[in-house]
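Hi Y.,

Following your request, here is the sequence exactly as I used it, all 299 residues.
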Amino acid sequence: MLIIKIFGFVIVISFVLYLLMIMPRVVNKPSRKPFTGVLYAHRGLHDNRSNAPENSMAAFKKAVDGGYGIECDVQLTKDGVPVIFHDFTLARVARYPEGQIPSDAVRNEDGSYGVKGKVIDYTYDELMNFHLLDSDEKIPKFEEFLNMVNGKIPLIVELKIELKDLSVCPKADELLRNYNGVYCIESFNPLGVMWYRKNHPEVFRGQLSDAFHRDKPQEFKGPLYFVLTNLLFNFLTRPDFVAFNHKYAGCVSRRICRRFYGNVAAAWTIKSEEELLRARKNFDIFIFDSFVPAGGPKA
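Below is the corresponding structure, written out as C-alpha coordinates. Let me know if you'd prefer a different format.
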Protein backbone atom coordinates (compact mmCIF):
# COMPACT_ATOMS: atom_id res chain seq x y z
CA MET A 1 0.00 0.00 0.00
CA LEU A 2 2.84 2.39 0.87
CA ILE A 3 4.47 1.76 -2.51
CA ILE A 4 1.19 2.59 -4.28
CA LYS A 5 0.87 5.84 -2.31
CA ILE A 6 4.45 6.83 -3.11
CA PHE A 7 3.92 6.02 -6.77
CA GLY A 8 0.73 8.09 -6.84
CA PHE A 9 2.51 10.99 -5.11
CA VAL A 10 5.32 10.88 -7.69
CA ILE A 11 2.78 10.92 -10.54
CA VAL A 12 0.96 13.93 -9.10
CA ILE A 13 4.17 15.88 -8.46
CA SER A 14 5.45 15.06 -11.95
CA PHE A 15 2.23 16.29 -13.53
CA VAL A 16 2.32 19.52 -11.53
CA LEU A 17 5.94 20.11 -12.57
CA TYR A 18 4.98 19.45 -16.19
CA LEU A 19 2.18 22.03 -15.98
CA LEU A 20 4.61 24.56 -14.52
CA MET A 21 7.19 23.88 -17.23
CA ILE A 22 4.79 24.44 -20.14
CA MET A 23 3.00 27.39 -18.54
CA PRO A 24 3.03 30.45 -20.83
CA ARG A 25 2.77 34.02 -19.58
CA VAL A 26 -0.37 34.28 -17.45
CA VAL A 27 0.00 37.71 -15.77
CA ASN A 28 0.74 41.17 -17.17
CA LYS A 29 0.03 39.88 -20.66
CA PRO A 30 -0.11 42.26 -23.65
CA SER A 31 -3.44 42.38 -25.45
CA ARG A 32 -4.04 39.79 -28.15
CA LYS A 33 -6.56 42.00 -29.96
CA PRO A 34 -4.08 43.77 -32.30
CA PHE A 35 -3.04 40.40 -33.73
CA THR A 36 -6.32 38.57 -34.19
CA GLY A 37 -8.99 39.22 -36.80
CA VAL A 38 -6.66 39.23 -39.81
CA LEU A 39 -5.00 36.46 -41.85
CA TYR A 40 -1.21 36.51 -42.22
CA ALA A 41 0.50 35.98 -45.57
CA HIS A 42 3.48 33.67 -45.03
CA ARG A 43 6.58 35.44 -46.37
CA GLY A 44 4.25 37.89 -48.12
CA LEU A 45 1.55 37.25 -50.68
CA HIS A 46 3.99 35.37 -52.84
CA ASP A 47 4.21 33.06 -55.81
CA ASN A 48 7.69 31.63 -56.38
CA ARG A 49 6.95 31.21 -60.08
CA SER A 50 6.26 34.93 -60.49
CA ASN A 51 8.07 38.23 -60.06
CA ALA A 52 6.81 38.33 -56.46
CA PRO A 53 8.63 35.40 -54.78
CA GLU A 54 8.71 34.69 -51.06
CA ASN A 55 10.09 37.36 -48.72
CA SER A 56 10.39 39.88 -51.56
CA MET A 57 9.32 43.50 -51.47
CA ALA A 58 6.90 42.75 -54.33
CA ALA A 59 5.21 39.99 -52.30
CA PHE A 60 5.04 42.20 -49.22
CA LYS A 61 3.49 45.06 -51.17
CA LYS A 62 0.83 42.71 -52.56
CA ALA A 63 -0.04 41.62 -49.02
CA VAL A 64 -0.24 45.21 -47.76
CA ASP A 65 -2.40 46.26 -50.72
CA GLY A 66 -4.70 43.30 -50.02
CA GLY A 67 -5.03 44.11 -46.32
CA TYR A 68 -3.32 40.91 -45.14
CA GLY A 69 -0.99 40.71 -42.18
CA ILE A 70 2.53 39.51 -42.94
CA GLU A 71 4.78 36.86 -41.43
CA CYS A 72 8.44 37.37 -42.36
CA ASP A 73 11.88 36.08 -41.37
CA VAL A 74 14.80 38.24 -40.21
CA GLN A 75 18.48 37.36 -39.97
CA LEU A 76 21.81 39.18 -40.23
CA THR A 77 24.35 39.61 -43.00
CA LYS A 78 28.09 39.32 -42.45
CA ASP A 79 28.27 43.08 -41.79
CA GLY A 80 25.36 43.02 -39.35
CA VAL A 81 22.53 44.28 -41.57
CA PRO A 82 19.10 42.80 -40.74
CA VAL A 83 17.62 41.33 -43.92
CA ILE A 84 14.55 39.27 -44.70
CA PHE A 85 15.28 35.71 -45.81
CA HIS A 86 13.94 32.39 -44.56
CA ASP A 87 16.59 29.70 -44.98
CA PHE A 88 19.98 30.00 -43.34
CA THR A 89 21.45 28.75 -46.64
CA LEU A 90 20.93 30.72 -49.85
CA ALA A 91 20.79 27.99 -52.49
CA ARG A 92 17.05 27.27 -52.60
CA VAL A 93 15.96 30.85 -53.32
CA ALA A 94 18.99 33.01 -54.25
CA ARG A 95 20.29 32.96 -57.82
CA TYR A 96 23.39 34.25 -59.58
CA PRO A 97 23.00 36.75 -62.45
CA GLU A 98 22.43 35.17 -65.84
CA GLY A 99 25.67 34.04 -67.41
CA GLN A 100 27.61 34.40 -64.14
CA ILE A 101 27.07 30.99 -62.52
CA PRO A 102 30.36 29.86 -60.93
CA SER A 103 31.62 26.30 -61.07
CA ASP A 104 30.95 25.76 -57.36
CA ALA A 105 27.30 26.85 -57.46
CA VAL A 106 24.86 24.60 -55.62
CA ARG A 107 22.72 22.42 -57.88
CA ASN A 108 19.18 22.17 -56.48
CA GLU A 109 16.83 19.21 -56.85
CA ASP A 110 14.88 21.03 -59.57
CA GLY A 111 18.04 21.46 -61.64
CA SER A 112 18.53 25.15 -60.87
CA TYR A 113 21.81 26.56 -59.61
CA GLY A 114 21.67 28.40 -56.31
CA VAL A 115 24.09 30.61 -54.43
CA LYS A 116 26.43 28.69 -52.17
CA GLY A 117 26.82 29.45 -48.48
CA LYS A 118 24.71 31.18 -45.85
CA VAL A 119 23.27 34.66 -45.55
CA ILE A 120 25.79 35.48 -42.83
CA ASP A 121 28.67 34.57 -45.17
CA TYR A 122 28.00 37.68 -47.28
CA THR A 123 27.87 41.42 -46.69
CA TYR A 124 24.68 43.22 -47.66
CA ASP A 125 26.36 44.71 -50.74
CA GLU A 126 27.53 41.26 -51.81
CA LEU A 127 23.99 39.87 -51.44
CA MET A 128 22.76 42.57 -53.82
CA ASN A 129 24.60 40.73 -56.62
CA PHE A 130 22.01 37.94 -56.41
CA HIS A 131 18.28 37.82 -57.19
CA LEU A 132 15.35 35.85 -55.77
CA LEU A 133 14.49 32.83 -57.93
CA ASP A 134 13.54 33.87 -61.48
CA SER A 135 12.47 37.39 -60.51
CA ASP A 136 14.23 40.73 -60.52
CA GLU A 137 13.73 41.02 -56.77
CA LYS A 138 16.61 41.26 -54.29
CA ILE A 139 16.89 40.22 -50.65
CA PRO A 140 15.29 43.16 -48.81
CA LYS A 141 16.59 45.04 -45.83
CA PHE A 142 14.33 44.71 -42.79
CA GLU A 143 14.41 48.51 -42.45
CA GLU A 144 13.24 48.92 -46.05
CA PHE A 145 10.39 46.52 -45.39
CA LEU A 146 9.27 48.34 -42.23
CA ASN A 147 9.30 51.67 -44.04
CA MET A 148 7.11 50.25 -46.80
CA VAL A 149 4.56 48.63 -44.48
CA ASN A 150 4.44 51.73 -42.27
CA GLY A 151 1.93 50.33 -39.81
CA LYS A 152 -0.74 49.54 -42.40
CA ILE A 153 -1.10 45.91 -41.30
CA PRO A 154 0.07 43.78 -38.31
CA LEU A 155 3.37 41.90 -38.53
CA ILE A 156 4.67 38.59 -37.19
CA VAL A 157 8.47 38.83 -37.21
CA GLU A 158 10.32 35.52 -36.97
CA LEU A 159 13.87 35.85 -35.66
CA LYS A 160 16.17 33.35 -37.36
CA ILE A 161 18.63 32.26 -34.69
CA GLU A 162 21.19 29.54 -35.31
CA LEU A 163 22.44 27.82 -32.16
CA LYS A 164 23.32 30.48 -29.53
CA ASP A 165 24.01 33.51 -31.75
CA LEU A 166 21.51 36.11 -30.54
CA SER A 167 23.02 39.05 -32.43
CA VAL A 168 19.91 39.42 -34.59
CA CYS A 169 17.77 40.25 -31.53
CA PRO A 170 19.18 43.69 -30.63
CA LYS A 171 19.68 44.59 -34.30
CA ALA A 172 16.09 43.82 -35.27
CA ASP A 173 14.79 45.33 -32.04
CA GLU A 174 16.59 48.61 -32.73
CA LEU A 175 14.54 49.00 -35.90
CA LEU A 176 11.31 47.80 -34.31
CA ARG A 177 11.70 50.30 -31.46
CA ASN A 178 11.24 53.09 -34.01
CA TYR A 179 8.52 51.34 -36.03
CA ASN A 180 5.09 52.93 -35.93
CA GLY A 181 2.92 49.86 -36.23
CA VAL A 182 1.65 46.64 -34.64
CA TYR A 183 4.15 43.78 -34.49
CA CYS A 184 4.98 40.68 -32.49
CA ILE A 185 8.06 38.46 -32.51
CA GLU A 186 8.51 34.70 -32.62
CA SER A 187 11.32 32.21 -32.93
CA PHE A 188 11.93 28.46 -32.99
CA ASN A 189 14.92 29.13 -30.77
CA PRO A 190 13.83 29.63 -27.13
CA LEU A 191 16.91 31.78 -26.52
CA GLY A 192 15.47 34.47 -28.79
CA VAL A 193 12.12 34.41 -26.99
CA MET A 194 13.99 34.60 -23.69
CA TRP A 195 15.90 37.65 -24.96
CA TYR A 196 12.62 39.47 -25.48
CA ARG A 197 11.27 38.31 -22.14
CA LYS A 198 14.31 39.84 -20.43
CA ASN A 199 14.82 42.99 -22.50
CA HIS A 200 11.36 43.97 -23.74
CA PRO A 201 8.65 42.10 -21.81
CA GLU A 202 6.00 44.47 -23.15
CA VAL A 203 6.38 42.98 -26.66
CA PHE A 204 3.93 40.20 -27.64
CA ARG A 205 6.22 37.18 -28.01
CA GLY A 206 5.70 33.70 -29.40
CA GLN A 207 7.34 30.28 -29.32
CA LEU A 208 7.43 28.52 -32.69
CA SER A 209 7.25 24.76 -32.57
CA ASP A 210 6.41 21.61 -34.48
CA ALA A 211 6.07 17.87 -34.02
CA PHE A 212 9.61 17.76 -35.36
CA HIS A 213 10.01 13.99 -35.39
CA ARG A 214 6.80 13.34 -37.35
CA ASP A 215 7.90 14.58 -40.79
CA LYS A 216 11.67 14.11 -40.57
CA PRO A 217 12.43 11.49 -37.90
CA GLN A 218 16.03 11.02 -39.04
CA GLU A 219 16.84 14.73 -38.97
CA PHE A 220 15.01 15.71 -35.80
CA LYS A 221 15.82 13.07 -33.23
CA GLY A 222 17.04 13.15 -29.66
CA PRO A 223 15.84 14.69 -26.39
CA LEU A 224 16.18 18.32 -27.51
CA TYR A 225 13.46 17.97 -30.15
CA PHE A 226 11.22 16.14 -27.67
CA VAL A 227 11.59 19.11 -25.30
CA LEU A 228 10.95 21.64 -28.10
CA THR A 229 7.91 19.78 -29.42
CA ASN A 230 6.36 19.57 -25.99
CA LEU A 231 7.09 23.21 -25.09
CA LEU A 232 9.11 22.27 -22.03
CA PHE A 233 11.17 25.48 -22.29
CA ASN A 234 8.08 27.62 -21.71
CA PHE A 235 9.06 28.10 -18.06
CA LEU A 236 12.05 30.08 -19.39
CA THR A 237 10.37 31.92 -22.26
CA ARG A 238 6.80 32.45 -20.94
CA PRO A 239 5.41 33.05 -24.44
CA ASP A 240 2.24 35.01 -25.14
CA PHE A 241 1.43 32.68 -28.02
CA VAL A 242 2.53 29.33 -29.39
CA ALA A 243 2.84 29.04 -33.17
CA PHE A 244 2.53 25.38 -34.11
CA ASN A 245 2.40 23.32 -37.31
CA HIS A 246 -1.36 23.15 -37.91
CA LYS A 247 -1.10 19.50 -38.98
CA TYR A 248 -0.24 18.52 -35.41
CA ALA A 249 -2.85 20.52 -33.53
CA GLY A 250 -3.39 17.53 -31.24
CA CYS A 251 -0.06 18.02 -29.44
CA VAL A 252 -1.03 17.72 -25.76
CA SER A 253 1.23 20.51 -24.51
CA ARG A 254 -0.06 22.90 -27.17
CA ARG A 255 -3.67 22.09 -26.31
CA ILE A 256 -3.10 22.57 -22.58
CA CYS A 257 -1.47 25.94 -23.22
CA ARG A 258 -4.50 27.12 -25.17
CA ARG A 259 -7.36 25.52 -23.26
CA PHE A 260 -6.08 25.52 -19.67
CA TYR A 261 -3.89 28.63 -19.66
CA GLY A 262 -5.76 30.64 -22.31
CA ASN A 263 -2.62 31.06 -24.41
CA VAL A 264 -3.02 32.40 -27.96
CA ALA A 265 -2.50 29.70 -30.62
CA ALA A 266 -1.11 30.50 -34.08
CA ALA A 267 -1.32 28.00 -36.94
CA TRP A 268 1.39 27.63 -39.56
CA THR A 269 1.41 27.13 -42.51
CA ILE A 270 -2.11 26.71 -43.95
CA LYS A 271 -2.16 25.91 -47.66
CA SER A 272 -5.84 25.51 -48.63
CA GLU A 273 -9.36 26.58 -47.75
CA GLU A 274 -9.98 23.13 -46.27
CA GLU A 275 -6.98 23.42 -43.96
CA LEU A 276 -8.07 26.90 -42.91
CA LEU A 277 -11.54 25.64 -42.05
CA ARG A 278 -10.15 22.78 -39.94
CA ALA A 279 -7.69 25.06 -38.15
CA ARG A 280 -10.35 27.50 -36.98
CA LYS A 281 -11.47 25.27 -34.09
CA ASN A 282 -7.94 24.84 -32.72
CA PHE A 283 -6.19 28.17 -33.37
CA ASP A 284 -6.65 31.92 -33.02
CA ILE A 285 -4.10 33.27 -35.54
CA PHE A 286 -3.72 31.87 -39.06
CA ILE A 287 -0.62 32.02 -41.30
CA PHE A 288 -1.18 30.92 -44.90
CA ASP A 289 0.51 30.56 -48.27
CA SER A 290 0.07 28.80 -51.64
CA PHE A 291 -3.50 30.11 -52.00
CA VAL A 292 -5.50 33.30 -51.51
CA PRO A 293 -8.25 32.89 -48.89
CA ALA A 294 -11.70 33.16 -50.46
CA GLY A 295 -13.02 35.38 -47.68
CA GLY A 296 -10.27 37.95 -48.02
CA PRO A 297 -7.91 39.13 -45.27
CA LYS A 298 -10.31 38.90 -42.35
CA ALA A 299 -9.88 35.95 -40.03
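The CA atoms of residues 76 and 82 lie 5 Å apart.

Thanks again,
Q.
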